[in-house]
Design goal:
about 575 residues; alpha+beta; 6-stranded mixed beta sheet; 5-stranded mixed beta sheet; elongated
């Protein structure tokens, strides 16, 4: 190498020994001149037959000794490239004793003479990476038709331990995105079973896709505390409630569902069970209760035994309710719901009052209206319906309110999100709600809210504010009733139909037969008793329609003296028992 550089008297040579692996050595001869730096990586190898291979000389640019050691002191492990990419290597491309450029690279000069190029041109021509030396050696062995074991051993020598570690870490991250190892959970579970069953159950979705990923943790001590909380147990813990909630910051990437209770002796909340799962949704919460009942039946030695404390406290979230409804255990559902059905509001709960409500409230304070009994034939001037999940409560008003002065339909009927002023008047002055009561600005009520508003009218006469509306057709009581022939009065709301044929709709001024009967609403009073109210029913002035009534057939039909009939109407009444009053 020194003979080839005799023409460069100003060059100073320095030899840097770099260990590539435990069996072979590579060294770099650095030739520094005033304007350029050339580093010759010289590699010597000896095959199994002891034949000395030719020296491979490669021109590379390195700026310092540390850079040379850093890049060539460790063999690179990226040996997965196809060996076909290196078929252009040939022994004749290397001229021992003189540094040359690889002739196989694009743009390389085809010459075997000594070549010295500026550093920038060398970088542009070669673009050699750090895995260059290891790939060349493996390519030589494969061209020599060596056995597979020798190629594998040579590749193993150039394998980088750090790169393998990175590949292993990437595979672990793919299998366990959050960094948790279920192998460690399995070992911990087996270890804790020797003394106490700390980890009751777990599942990895990657191995068992039918269930979500979870780790269900409890202990024998916690299960015994829960066993003492049973209503059938003779223990002071039977008076304590249970508390259920989820935490999103305890375990990275997972949600934590937990069940607590207050322990009087320790004077603090104690955790009964913890479950780390993927989400706080219906699927995971249902699985939580199922696993908890399984563990509880196991500790009690009774497969049919379920957790039944004095009471429960949890968020009224949709996932919680849905999980409870899916439970097969009715005892647990009964304890969680208090033994009653969940109340449903048929509209969104209004927590704040809109601007339109404030104006309606001011008008309602100045109203002077009277409230009459309900009439399902809509023979009054105005009515509105208070909606709830089970019943529709109808309120009727005898006086025409201000909202109907400019039309026949109030804005409450046109827009279901508005609360009209005449409705607020009834709720304030007749029902007795306060101005700051949250039920004023609701457009739909729950069953309990309606019962509380109807409590003061349950024992009074039916000519009061609110009555119930049955879901089916009203059935009056079978006793003597007074039948009258009259004309349909002017009224708002939907027009009534004939109760016999259910086809004819009575318009204002049309002739009809009316009867007052008793009707039993669907809801009950505060003593849980049914009550009856008056209801007016209308029929066509034909015997076929009147005969379909559930009341006894009328012996006579009264005719008002001020009622004037046309000759055509008189002819149609010949078959009816008309009696003039």
């Amino acid at each position: 190498m020194a003979e080839n550089h005799s023409s460069c008297p100003s060059a100073s040579k320095q030899v840097i020994d770099v260990e590539a692996n435990a069996t072979e050595r590579s060294y770099a001869e650095v030739v520094k001149t005033e304007k350029k730096t050339l580093i010759y990586i010289v590699d010597s190898d000896e095959d199994d037959d002891g034949v000395q291979q030719s020296r491979d000389t490669v021109n590379l640019r390195m700026e310092s000794k540390e850079h040379v050691i850093e890049n060539f002191g460790k063999a690179n492990s990226k040996i997965k490239r196809k060996l076909d990419e290196f078929e252009w290597w040939d022994e004749e491309l290397y001229n021992p004793g003189a540094p040359v450029l690889p002739l196989g690279l694009s743009g390389s000069p085809r010459t075997k003479h000594h070549v010295i190029l500026p550093i920038e041109e060398i970088l542009c021509e070669l673009r050699i990476k750090t895995l260059f030396c290891s790939v060349v050696k493996i390519a030589k062995i494969s061209r020599a038709k060596a056995v597979k074991a020798r190629i594998t051993n040579k590749a193993r020598e150039f394998t980088d331990v750090e790169t393998l570690s990175k590949l292993k870490s990437a595979m672990k991250k793919q299998m366990n995105p959050h960094g948790y190892s279920f192998d460690a959970v399995t070992k911990l579970r087996e270890k804790t079973r020797e003394k106490d069953r700390l980890i009751y159950s777990f599942n990895n979705r990657e191995m068992n896709p039918s269930n979500p990923t979870y780790v269900f943790k409890t202990s024998t001590v916690s299960l015994n505390i829960a066993l003492n909380m049973q209503q059938s147990a003779d223990h002071f813990m039977r008076e304590e409630y249970c508390y259920f909630d989820g935490t999103h910051s305890r375990c990275h990437g997972l949600k934590t569902l937990a069940l607590w209770t207050y322990h009087p002796l320790r004077r603090k909340l104690v955790k009964l069970v913890t479950m780390d799962c993927e989400r706080e949704n219906q699927e995971c919460i249902s699985l939580f209760w199922k696993l908890w009942n399984d563990a509880f039946s196991e500790i009690s030695k009774n497969p049919a035994y379920t957790f039944d404390p004095k009471g429960w406290c949890m968020d009224e979230a949709g996932a919680n309710w849905s999980a409870i409804e899916e439970l097969e255990d009715l005892t647990l559902s009964h304890g969680l719901t208090g033994g009653i059905d969940k109340e449903v509001r048929s509209a969104h709960t209004r927590t704040r009052r809109p601007q339109e409500f404030t104006r309606s409230l001011e008008l309602a304070k100045r109203y002077r209206l009277c409230v009459t009994s309900v009439d399902y034939r809509t023979e009054v001037n105005c009515r509105f319906v208070c909606k709830c999940h089970d019943d529709d409560i109808i309120v009727t008003i005898a006086q025409k309110p201000i909202c109907l002065k400019n039309g026949d339909i109030c804005k409450y009927t046109r827009n279901g999100t508005q609360v009209c002023s005449h409705i607020l008047y009834v709720l304030l002055n007749k029902v007795g709600l306060e101005e700051d009561d949250g039920r004023l600005n609701q457009i739909a009520y729950t069953t309990s809210e309606l019962k509380s508003m109807l409590a003061k009218f349950a024992t009074k006469s039916p000519s009061h504010v609110l009555v119930g509306q049955a879901s089916s057709a009203p059935v009056p009581t079978k006793k003597s009733s007074e039948w009258k022939l009259q004309r349909m009065p002017l009224q708002g709301g939907p027009k009534p139909k004939c109760k016999g044929c259910s086809k004819r709709v009575f318009k204002t001024g049309e002739l009809c037969v009316a009867v007052i009967g008793k009707y039993t609403p669907k809801h009950k009073d505060k003593d849980a008793n049914h009550f009856q109210v008056d209801a007016t029913y209308r029929y066509c002035h034909k015997l076929c329609c009147i005969a379909k009534s559930s009341l006894p057939a009328p012996k006579r039909i009264l005719l008002d003296t001020d009622l004037q009939l046309t000759p055509e109407e008189l002819d149609s009444l010949q078959n009816l028992p008309i009696v003039s009053t």
